Amino acid sequence: MLVKKSLKAISMIIVFALLFSFVGCTKKSTAVRVVEESDPYYSCDEINLEFQFTDVEDKELKNRMFGQRKVFQGCVIVSVYEEYVIPEELEKEMDEFWKNYFKYTEEDAIEINNRYGSYFRNGLACFDMDGKMNCFVDIPSGSEIVGMSEDTEGNPKILLSSYIGGGYKIEVCDISPEGDFINKIRLGDDVSSVLGKDFFVLDNGNFLCHDIAYDGSSILVFNSDGILLSKEKVKDPITKITPEIDRLLHIDGKFYACYVKKDFFDDTVMPKMYMYEIDPDSAKTLGEAIESTSSIHASKLIQGQDGVYAILGNGIEKVDCVGAEDSSTILSWNETDCNHIGDNPYDIGFCLASENDIYLTREVEIGQYQLIDTPSEIHLLHLKREETNPHAGKQILYLTYMGDMRKEFLEYLNTYNLDFFNCLLHYTFNSQFNIISHIK
């Protein structure tokens, strides 16, 4: 073990020694790439979304975890679960309660459960774009947030699933400034308890969504009162089996149901994504299934107002899922000096407010190398395109990175680029090669 650690340390020393030998080199080749003033550059304002609660002055935060989060045009909504340190006396009271609960009156049982429950919090925190928490909405016991969307005016819509009386009800809700679910619209009476996270509010006020049933998925259309208008299954054109819909996407004014098909008999074959255009009025498929031209997995696609995006190792891309064109890069991480990597990269809030203003969130752990009971923070990143590149005149050095991008690696690059004046480090993400790729 000591030998392995020593070898790892020596290898890191060699890598950084090699890097700084390149940086310190004053001899320039004819192929030197220098930053121009006209090269794109995005400044980055990073705001900590502060959770401000008035009922926790005497409580110690033990853990904070996040679920879904979404950036809208004027606010940020984050699903959060908090746990506080429970006093030893209360723990003993609860142990006694569970041992002899039949001895307690209904009023006493409610009282002790309310006290115990006050050390846990589960709900949606709503922030403005300056990071101020406007309100917090408690998620009722037995309920969960299925998805978050917006209406045609950009107002947030929450899809809430609740377990009642041996069954489920699905509701579309607004959030009041006081922190309540209001204007609830129940979607039908016999909807599956499992809906996909993608749902849309159409121009006519109808709701378009899909379920994930055991016998295959269906496309669902409800009117503005929640009455089911249409329900249609999607069948695989080859097997004729109804697949499970992975995503429902809105691209260039059209709606698509997407499902990923994997060859279970050959693990060397990459899964393929197929897309059916959907009629938003009848929920029926239009034409034949299209094999997606994108190599990006469906789970990484982020629905934007004008198309579909993906946040990848090299930058933010607008993804062409149905056409023949390659994905177009909206922003390369080399065009900004910020750390976009969080400890949970699977649910990234994102909003393209304009071609010059981009918002996204990242989760930041408080403390180092704590695997459990680690409170976290959510930071809102505002990337704003500047008129001129502040690194103009710097020579560019190129590196290649292999494996999962580490936040420490990106932090080092950002620190170097901001502190040094003669050279600028750029990187490319590569799954096959490592160390330094080349210098131009």
Features:
single chain; 440 residues; mainly beta; 4-stranded antiparallel beta sheet; disordered N terminus; disordered C terminus
Describe this structure in words.
There is one protein chain. With 440 residues, the chain is mostly beta strands. Helices cover 13% and strands 40% of the residues. It is built from 4 helices and 27 strands. A 4-stranded antiparallel β-sheet has the order 1-24-23-22, with no helix packed on it. It is globular. The two termini are 39 Å apart. The N terminus and C terminus are likely disordered.
Helices and strands in order:
Elements: H1 2-23, E1 42-48, E2 61-71, E3 76-84, H2 88-99, H3 106-117, E4 120-127, E5 133-138, E6 143-150, E7 156-164, E8 167-175, E9 181-186, E10 200-201, E11 207-210, E12 218-222, E13 228-233, E14 247-251, E15 254-261, E16 272-278, E17 285-291, E18 301-303, E19 308-311, E20 315-319, E21 328-332, E22 350-354, E23 357-365, E24 376-385, E25 395-401, H4 407-419, E26 423-429, E27 438-439
Parallel strand pairs: 25-26
Antiparallel strand pairs: 1-24, 2-3, 3-4, 4-5, 6-7, 7-8, 8-9, 10-11, 11-12, 12-13, 14-15, 15-16, 16-17, 18-19, 19-20, 20-21, 22-23, 23-24, 25-27
